[in-house]
Every structure is written in C-alpha cells, then in structure tokens.
Amino acid sequence: MMTIRKRRPADGGLYPNDRNVAKGGVRPDRAWTVKAMASPTLQVGVPIAMDLRVATNGPPASAERHVYSLGDHLRVRRRCYWHHGIYVGADRVVQFGGVLFDKAHSGVEEVALQEFHRGDRVEVVPKQQKWLGLWDLAPALPPEEIVRRARWLADRRFEGTYNLVGRNCETAALWCVCNMGESLQRQRFQAANAYLGGVVYLIYAYLSGRGRAPAWATRAILSFMAVRVALLVVYYRHNARFYRDVRPYYTERARLA
To answer: Between residues 172 and 198, which one has the greater pLDDT?
Structure first.
C-alpha cells in the first residue's frame, strides 16, 4: 500500500475551493509526495498529480559531513578512555599514541580524520575547560598557533615517548591548545585514587581502634601507598620530559619573532 501526503503551495497559503479535490478532482498545480510502504499497489480512485516525489529519511550515512574549524580539539571514545587530537584542516588530525595495542612505540603523527575516529562519534572539546571542575585552565591560544604547535610535534614524532600517566594524547593536545601539558583524565584518575586511599585509611583506622589491625589490612594500606607513590613518580618523570622535549619550540618561536 502507498500513502500519499499533500504539500502546501510554496507561499504557505491554502487552495481555494478544496471541495473539488474531495470529490476526486485534482488540480494541475497541486504537488503530492508519495512514500512506498509494504505493497507497491495503488488503491483505485486515489488521485495522484503529475509531480511525484519519493520521500526519503535524509541522505545516506556515507554522505554525512562533519565541519570542524582549524585548531579544534577533538576527542573520540576508545573503550575506557578518550583519545584526543588536534584538527589541522583538510580532514586531517594530529594525534599522539593512535595505535591501540602498541602505544609504548607510537609517536605523534598527522592522520586522516577517518583514521582518527575509526567510525566512532567525534566530539569537539570546549576550549575553556575546568581543572577537576574547580578552576579554569589557561585561555586557548589562537587557532593558527594551535595548528603550528600540533604540526611541530608531528614533524618531530617523539616516537617511544608515550606514557599513559604522564605523557599521553591529551597532554599533547592541551599543550597545543593552552600551553599546558596536562591530562585531565589523569587528574580525575588521581582524584579517584586519593578518594579511595582515604576510604582505605579510614577502614584501617577503624580496625586499629578496635584493637590490633589484622595483617591483611596493614599489607593493603602499605601496598596502596606504594602504588600511589610510584604513580606520582612516573607522572612527574614523564611530564618533566615532555616539557624538556618541547623547549626548543619556544626557542624557535623567539628567534622568528
């Protein structure tokens, strides 16, 4: 069966004397839109004008286009984390550590937009973000400077320097955007880690207050403190190395100024 929808004139007005149509007459200037349903058979007596247009639900997915601006900070979901990059124009993105299972040997590279998102939904990260939701990050740099920094990193690649804690894709992206080599994902992880540590310590204090704490509780609190200290050491080591590696950029820009 086919359903037929009537379109109004372009000026949005009403047709006069519509009762002629109700009696089966069809105006030559009347346009109809036909949408095929389960059966292609037309019902007898259904008026159809000469202008027939097949209704669709919009363009196919392959024709969908995304428009981004130079210097946009993009991110896409990768299982349990966000992967970040900088849009540099012409459907190209600079990313760091794009290889999922070999990040230790990956570097900064400029890739096609499709290779960056791999079919997943891309989000534009706001240029003004809050650190742990408490205070604002530094203001965003001009788009031309963001793109210049991203391509400077891609030219040098820095292969084998990726580190999930202290030098990841968001670290490079935020340095390009606001001159701050930091990862808000890492900050959130560290905040959750500190919260968990407080809970573990309260449990330990409660058990100690009731007498001698069991051996497993002592081992748990010591292990947790050791892991936390190790994560901080790894973070400061790799983050400091990142700032040492980008120091030549400032020298080059000062020489050109």
So the answer is: 172
